[in-house]
Amino acid sequence: MTARKPIRVIIWGPGHVGGGVLRATLTDDRFQVVGVRVFSPGKVGKDIGTLVGLDPVGVAATDSVAEILALDADCVVYCPRTTVMFEGQWSEVDRILRSGKNVVSSNSHHNMARTTWLSTSQSPTDVIRRLVEIDKGPIPVPNWKTIRAGLRALTGTPGLSRITNPLLDRWLEPIFDAKVLPRQLTGEQVVRTCREAGVSVRGAGPHPDYMAEHLGMALAHLLDRPRNFRIAETFDYAAAYSPDMWGGLELLGMGQPLDALDSRHALVLGGDIAYGDVVANVAYSMRGIHGDDLRIEGDAVGLPSNLDVEIGDEFVKKGTIGVMGLIHKAFYGEELVGTNEEWWFLGPENAYYGPNLPFGRSAGLGTHTFGIEAARVRIDMQVAAFAQPDAEAWDVPMDLTRTVILESIEPTVASEPGVVVYDERPHYLSDDGSFVVSEAGDEPLRIVVLGDGATADTVHALANRRPGLEIVARTQDAPDCAVVVGAAASDQVSRLLAAGIPVVTDRYPRHPVATTTAPLYVAGAAADVIIDRIVPILARAIDGKRHVRFVDALDASTEESIDIGLGGAPESVDAAEVFARIDAVSGAAVPLRLAATLGIDAAAVSFDYELSVTTAGRAEKVGPIVLEPGTVAAVHAVRRGYLADQVVFVHEVCRYAGPNYATRGSDLPMGGFTGPQCYTIESEGVRAISRVQLQVSPVEDNADTAAELVATALLDAIPAVSAASPGVLKFDPSPHFRLDRRLS
User: Fold this and answer.
1) pLDDT in tens, 167-197
2) Which of 6, 46, 720, 741 gives a 20 to 30 Å CA spacing to 424?
3) Picking from 12-16, 507-511, 548-552, which range would have the lowest pLDDT averaged per residue?
4) Alpha carbons 678 and 407: distance in angstroms, whole number
5) Distances in Å between the alpha carbon of 601 and those of 607, 641, 683?
6) What is the widest separation between alpha-carbon atoms in the chain?
7) Contact by Cβ (8 Å): 677, 705
8) DSSP result, 645-674
9) How far apart are CA 152 and CA 79, in angstroms?
10) For the chain, which residues make up each domain, given as ranges?
């Protein structure tokens, strides 16, 4: 077999982000670094290996754009200063693309399908009109304070502007981008350049990109008909302070009076380009709403510092701004469909993680809070990141940034020309190793639903409202796919497959089945859906993973769940038997996925078990569960997976009969759960620790949250299973990419 040639890359800006990418690409056989563009005179001519603490590699850094563009390379990893957003990054990337090189950018091109206030489709006077509304914070226009008053008079008077605006546009258009403020190229302009040069471009990073487009969209796809979302990002700016990053404290309003930040601050306009892109991307994924059909409203908020803070050469006095909040909301008409919040604080004494936290508190160097509401249920999740004791705080976000950029390079290089985006559609892996994408076609698929209970009822309810599906009454009606739910119905799987009917089901059949005549997909229980679709995305953020904990807690009185002994005698409950029953439904999906997350062979893992039970104090009926005094009201079972003598993962299952007996695991990182379906996910790596809480709660009183997740997963899989070859399909959690179809 011929060895694959490494991808030849150039690193443009080896600073905080680019330096980590440079080190990673120099030590990864998939890549060959052929050039590095530096900005510091002290780095010019230095060997690029020594720039990041490695041995020399024989390539010298340069500050010459001409030299860089003349190199023979496949991809430029573009990692400039954040402030270059207003200093010509769009034309700079355009020049790189025109040289025949693909681009992965950490700072731009996150949503080229949206028109912003700075797009070239806006006239110079349109841009100026937005700028003159801003009276706080620095504006990146030479001598802005001097010329602002005159421009405001010319562009702000309706009667006069009808005369002056065309004259100003005629005068400014030829010089505006070069002399005043470089505008953002439109998506159509970028696509045209890509097609002419035969290259592609992708915007990649932790947020925008990973948190919103990868994790946020995956959460939204767990639900049927999601209608609004909230993403709140928090960050301890003091832990990774750099005077060059984001323009320093002054640009962020830090150390200034509390009224220095409001909707008229320059941060709001700058944030519109980054975080307006976030809310528009998620709104499109959830609802199919295009960015230009949204109204984006921004605001900035300052909260007081609780103490004097000295950071670098800068000083923030107690009572002045020590927390910067930047909020962008997306409206479709008058309906709020999405919110992105940024809360950056100075040190743990000023830690602020946003209002209305779902679990009461948060912690860590940086956190992300998600809230996604659908028609019947909602999901709330918090993700907190911590540095290991021997790691630098900056290692935590840099590990994630590096991972997201590296995994973007190969698909960008391999893509057809255009703008490459994350592909949030469900993907499945078939027995032959090929991928099958699940997306509704032009003709509706006919499905038959077999089984009873809450999941079957939910499948019926959701399928009747889902475009592209048509329910038929009998298997004799030649369905394109059968949805089989419940233990009794699982016995029909073998018959259906033998008849050539594709099957999606919520549990593994009790007896072996042949899949040589039709494909089969098993979604498992609600916990298996979380394990399949969310845990692998979270795990990608942790470098050098060495331990994972997964806690699955469910109120069995309100949800359709596996019988693990509630209402029975305490001595009848056995921890190993609890996990055996759960594994029988999913085919041991949880231990297999946890082992895969760690990159270890599940067959090499040994287990031990632990059990604790809570007994009822009085006789009562809680939903379908009948309790007598002394019978089991709650179960907490623990399974530890060992590799040699080291615990590598922990799987905990909590089931309880109503909120009075709620047990949801110990050492909850963010505080108390309130929903009937809750998960705690902890991942530990070489430099970082991630702690996550996730809960699913009903919006409608009669909604079964576990059934909702399973039913949605089953219906999502139908187009893929109906189109697949015979065999067993598994959900594929690895990242996939495609051209932005909004720009096709």
Assistant:
1) 888 888 888 888 888 999 999 999 999 999 9
2) 6
3) 507-511
4) 30
5) 14, 11, 18
6) 88
7) yes
8) TEEEEEEEEEEESSGGG----SS-SSB---
9) 35
10) 7-114+185-198, 124-180, 226-374, 545-684
